């Protein structure tokens, strides 16, 4: 069963969500996990990819926008359900406020939220959804 972690950022700026998503993706990638970042749109996926290697000037982290490839060692940034894996995978980072239909294919789901009321409201509904179905939940404030 997918373990679900919620990360709350005490800021309403969308840039803080992007920064957190990238930090978590890099940490996951460095630990050797296949990582998929689910974005709200193609524009968001491309923007995150372009920011990926600005976090640390001394390291390069591979990434691409498009369908998840299980054999790839790069971070996948997707924006459509068809970009998610068709079989079991390791880490999904949910940047989109929409509940993804493919989250249960992952061993672990990282849901990001912030203090923007509309975004936070969608994430509260996601929490209720996961809880009502018995998914193990953890909450972290950043």
Annotate the secondary structure layout:
Blueprint: E1 3-8, H1 14-30, E2 35-38, H2 42-51, E3 63-65, E4 75-78, E5 89-94, E6 106-113, H3 117-132, E7 137-141
Parallel strand pairs: 1-6, 1-7, 2-4, 2-5, 3-4, 5-6
Protein name: DNA polymerase III chi subunit
Organism: Umboniibacter marinipuniceus
Pfam family, one: DNA_pol3_chi
Mean pLDDT: 91
CATH architecture: 3-Layer(aba) Sandwich
Residue share in β-strands: 25-35%
Number of strands: 7
The first-level CATH class name: Alpha Beta
The rounded distance between the terminal residues' Cα atoms is: 25 Å
Query: Could you give me the name of the CATH homologous superfamily?
Result: DNA polymerase III subunit chi
User: Widest sheet: strand order?
Assistant: 3-4-2-5-6-1-7
Largest sheet: 7 strands, parallel
* Helix percentage: 25-40%
Computed over alpha carbons, the radius of gyration is: 14 Å
In CATH, the topology is named Rossmann fold
Total separate domains:
1
In terms of structural class, how would the helical and strand content be classed?
alpha/beta
Number of helices: 3
Shape type: globular
Low-confidence stretches: none
Order of helices and strands: EHEHEEEEHE
Q: What does it look like?
A:
The protein is α/β, with parallel strands linked by helices and 142 residues long. It is built from three helices and seven strands. The protein has one domain: 3-Layer(aba) Sandwich (Rossmann fold), CATH 3.40.50.
